[in-house]
Design a protein that fits this description.
The chain has 292 residues and is α+β, with helices and mostly antiparallel strands. It has 2 domains: 2-46 and 156-289, no CATH class; 52-148, Alpha-Beta Plaits (2-Layer Sandwich), CATH 3.30.70. The protein has 8 helices and 4 strands. It has helices at 2-50, 63-74, 87-98, 127-138, 150-191, 194-202, 207-243, 253-283; strands at 52-57, 79-85, 115-120, 143-147. Strands 2-3-1-4 form a 4-stranded antiparallel sheet.
Amino acid sequence: MSNKNQPIRRRLVTANFSTVLSIALVLFMVASMVLISFHLWNLSAQIKEEVSFTVYITDNASENEGKDLAGQIQNNPMVKSASYISKQKATEMMDNVMGKGHLDILDGFNPYQATVEVHLKAENFDVKQIKQFIQWVEAKPITESVDYRDDLINNINSEVYDASAFFIVILIALLIISVTLINHTINLTVSSKKLLIRSMQLVGAKASFIRRPFILKGLWLGALGGLLADIFAAAVMVWIYTLLQGFDFTPYYSFYAIVAAGIIILGALLTLLFSYIAVMRNMNLKNYKLYN
């Protein structure tokens, strides 16, 4: 008897494996796009925060006044960092570029101005907000001028917007494809049991009793598919880590954990929903469709 059942068991294992693999591959694509979008968003934020503004301080301002201005700018909620650079510090920095003692020909005269180097937070990298910030800084008594690249800001914002829009469209398209493919896979799995469903109806089984094993199996297959998708995604991330040696992924571990849990939950919920719909559809089949 056991030998006769072996081919049936093999077919069941093969069918379940195919279902899980199909779900996993679809969810893996979704996970990949989420991770790519997340890292591109982080990269764009880093690029924005690398852009600096230089506030030139008047020559008659003291060093304490310059440091006080840097402190006021640092306390602005738009600002990530504000560093005061004295005239002497500016000279030392230029010595590293042009050679030590490059001002000797000026007989000790220092043409450099004290400045404050400002970096804004990525979320405040908006042209309108930046202009308001510049006006606020320029209104300070010891501010001579503010140097910033308006064209660079516009270009960065434009590129980030275009890239974000592209990946949002791709992500939505992938979600639609994922839902469709998982629905199709589950529907085929349940439809293969439509004669069993009709037999259970004929012997008087309640609808809830008929649905329960299919829903539980769908829930299990979806969760397993999500777990397999996470394993695929983790393998890819490890491969990328080996390529980008020196890049610190540690700050993103919590996000990776959320994505991994979300993929498993998404797989389980989708298969649960589609299993329920597929069973109800097959329970209401007309007799002439049972053999089609």
